[in-house]
Design goal:
With 332 residues, this protein is mainly alpha-helical. The protein has 3 domains: 47-108, 2-Layer Sandwich (Dna Ligase, domain 1), CATH 3.30.1490.480; 115-188; 198-301, no CATH class. Helices cover 48% and strands 8% of the residues. α2 crosses α3 and α6 crosses α7 (172-189).
């Protein structure tokens, strides 16, 4: 092999791999810019995109692509990694459109969403619900706690407890509609369970609200069965939770559900189920679906009494003598 031929061979052996690498780099960069460019710069029609709490970047990217907001979920993951946005993406609702690049969309998901997350706890009365909503939505915006309370005087029990995404600019009527619509959806999910129980929806929700506060994590169907049995046999319900509701807010303890005293059993209130037989006139809180199910499908037992000890454990009794033993053993 001549010296010139050898030199040309050596040159080609060096340059060809470099050219291949360069071509691959150019192709990769071109593809990256293509797949991160806007889908349609002329399309500014906004879409609402919801990021769930704890949702992974992979899931978000796939859904963005499925919704026609980005070209590639892989490119989205790369952008998030390169920009260090993994821990900055927020949960919530976002208004996005196909005229935004993948980078712009990723950055948009790190800014405040159009909605706020609000968790409404099962067993809360509407005043507690109103306080939580005002804290989340602010007192200077359209939402008014007083308006909410005024419009929900007959809706205790029907403001379904759940974690919601609520528009920041929602006023009280809109929020109430969201809560009551969710209640109706949950009731519909039960099918004929309530009607087949032989109880009215109103009575079922009242009982569910009592079970919610009385059971507090214990087997709710058993508690519901005891309370329905008392009611059907002409006994007073004797539920402490109804006394707590009648008493209302305890300013000293800063609690809507302060422990009732023995003297409270003499309260002149229709919610005093020690003094008055039958169900109270309305629910005492907003119950969970589990408590509604328990009220519609109670568990029959021989028990007539129950108490909750200081650790939250439930103890049952068939006779009043057994009940007194439980009281002395677990509450003193």
């Amino acid at each position: 092999m001549s010296r010139n031929v050898h030199a040309r061979f050596l040159f080609l052996s060096l340059i060809v791999p470099l050219l291949v690498v360069a071509i691959c780099v150019v192709a990769a960069v071109t593809a990256f810019f293509f797949y991160t460019a806007p889908i349609d710069q002329s399309n500014t029609a906004e879409q609402v995109f919801v990021v769930s709490k704890g949702e992974s970047t992979t899931s978000i990217g796939k859904r963005l692509a499925q919704q026609g907001l980005i070209k590639s979920s892989t490119a989205f993951k790369i952008i998030v990694k390169l920009e260090g946005l993994g821990n900055k993406i927020q949960a919530g609702d976002f208004r996005l459109n196909p005229s935004l690049s993948t980078k712009q969309i990723a950055q948009s998901l790190t800014r405040g969403s159009i909605d706020v997350w609000v968790t409404l706890i099962e067993g809360w009365r509407r005043e507690e619900t109103a306080e939580a909503l005002e804290k989340a939505l602010g007192s200077s915006g359209p939402f008014s706690k007083q308006e909410f309370l005024s419009l929900t005087t007959s809706k205790e029990g029907y403001l379904f407890p759940e974690t919601y995404l609520i528009p920041k600019d929602a006023a009280a009527p809109q929020v109430i509609e969201i809560l009551t619509d969710t209640f109706n959806l949950q009731i519909n999910s039960l099918g004929s369970q309530i009607t087949s129980s032989g109880r009215s929806l109103e009575d079922t929700i009242i009982m569910a609200s009592i079970v919610e506060r009385e059971a507090r994590g214990s087997p709710r169907p058993i508690v519901a069965g005891i309370l329905w049995k008392r009611l059907d046999n002409g006994w007073p319900l004797q539920a402490d939770a109804t006394l707590q509701y009648a008493k209302g807010y305890n300013a000293k303890e800063k609690d809507w559900w302060a422990e009732p005293l023995a003297a409270d059993k003499e309260l002149n209130s229709p919610y005093n189920t020690y003094k008055h037989q039958g169900l109270p006139p309305a629910p005492i809180c907003n119950p969970s679906l589990d408590s509604i199910k328990a009220a519609a499908n109670p568990t029959s037992s021989d028990y007539w009494y129950y108490i909750t000890d200081l650790d939250g454990n439930m103890h049952y009794a068939v006779t009043s003598e057994e009940h007194i033993v439980n009281v002395n053993r677990y509450l003193r």
